[in-house]
């Protein structure tokens, strides 16, 4: 797990300059920070900027829901495997933390959740269970394909966020949170490859189908 041990200055417009020796997401998981301006307020933005913020956080929230249910499905099949189950559980625990953070970001920035939440849960579980039934390597190939798309998606979001008002502390923190989540997802990708995801039967086809499905889901959640 990537732990941000280096000190990072978030924003000098806070009540005083703060440095972090922990993850940016800790501001959303530490009850002592609930009233901090960076986690309790949202900036005044233009309609175009609001659209960027709305679609980004709606998709991210839906993605974390789906990711949790993918790992739920994988654990339902492989949960007794002494080799792969601990790895899946570790990645799932990170996704649970991500979802907690996204829940709070949605409330903070007053984002309408996707109408496809139940679909994301069902599809995620089905994908996780189905690939796990194909074998450990196929389960890891699923993770590899999903995290490849999500890593690229988070990178694209960070570019879009450059148009948001960086003078507001919530936006500076949001960018750091997205970077952190992206790095977690890319670590999951690395774990999947280390666990021989590319040995899965029809790896290229499986990756194409799963990755294409993820891209389609992103576009749907932007709209609905």
Task: Describe what is shown at a glance.
This protein has 224 residues and is mainly alpha-helical.
Describe the structure.
By secondary structure, the protein is mainly alpha-helical. Helix content is 68%, strand content 2%. The protein is built from 8 helices and 2 strands. It has a two-stranded antiparallel ribbon with strand order 1-2. Helix 3 (47-78) packs antiparallel against helix 4 and helix 3 packs antiparallel against helix 6 (136-160). The radius of gyration is 18 Å and the shape is globular. The chain starts with 7 loop residues before the first strand and ends with a helix. Mean pLDDT is 86; it is low at 1-21. It comes from Hygrophoropsis aurantiaca. This is COQ7-domain-containing protein.
Helix/strand layout:
Blueprint: E1 8-9, E2 19-20, H1 26-29, H2 37-40, H3 47-78, H4 85-108, H5 117-133, H6 136-160, H7 169-194, H8 203-223
**From N to C, what is the helix and strand string?**
EEHHHHHHHH
Give the helix level as a range of percent: 55-70%
Strand content: under 5%
- Spatial ordering of strands, largest sheet: 1-2
Principal-axes shape call: globular
Question: How does the helix and strand content classify structurally?
Answer: mainly alpha
Please provide the count of β strands. 2
Average pLDDT value?
Answer: 86
Largest sheet: 2 strands, antiparallel
Total count of helical runs of at least 4 residues? 8
Alpha carbon gyration radius: 18 Å
Oligomer: single chain
> Which spans have pLDDT < 50 for at least 5 consecutive residues?
1-21
Distance between the termini: 33 Å
Protein name: COQ7-domain-containing protein
């Amino acid at each position: 797990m990537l732990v941000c041990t280096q000190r990072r200055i978030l924003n000098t417009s806070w009540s005083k300059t703060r440095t972090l020796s922990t993850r940016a997401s800790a501001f959303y998981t530490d009850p002592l920070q609930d009233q901090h301006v960076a986690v309790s307020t949202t900036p005044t933005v233009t309609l175009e900027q609001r659209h960027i913020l709305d679609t980004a956080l709606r998709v991210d929230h839906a993605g974390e829901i789906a990711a949790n249910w993918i790992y739920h499905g994988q654990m339902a099949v492989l949960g007794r495997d002494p080799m792969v189950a601990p790895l899946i559980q570790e990645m799932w625990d990170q996704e649970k933390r991500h979802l907690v953070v996204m829940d709070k970001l949605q409330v903070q920035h007053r984002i309408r959740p996707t109408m496809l939440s139940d679909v994301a849960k069902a599809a995620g579980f089905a994908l996780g269970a189905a690939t796990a039934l194909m074998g450990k390597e196929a389960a890891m190939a699923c993770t590899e394909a999903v995290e490849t798309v999500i890593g690229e998606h988070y990178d694209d979001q960070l570019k879009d966020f450059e148009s948001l008002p960086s003078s507001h502390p919530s936006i500076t923190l949001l960018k750091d949170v997205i970077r952190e989540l992206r790095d977690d997802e890319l670590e999951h990708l690395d774990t999947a490859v280390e666990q021989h995801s590319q040995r899965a039967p029809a790896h290229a086809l499986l990756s194409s189908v799963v990755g294409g499905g993820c891209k389609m889901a992103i576009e749907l959640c932007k709209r609905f």
